[in-house]
Amino acid sequence: MAMPAKYRDRLSSEFGGQVVITIDTQTRCLLVYPLATWEVLERQIQDLPSFDPAVKRFQRLTIGYASDLELDGSGRVLLPQSLRDYADLEKKVVLVGQGKKFELWGEDAWLAHREQWLAEEADVDLLSSDALKNLAM
Question: 0.90 cut: is pTM over it?
Answer without folding.
Answer: no
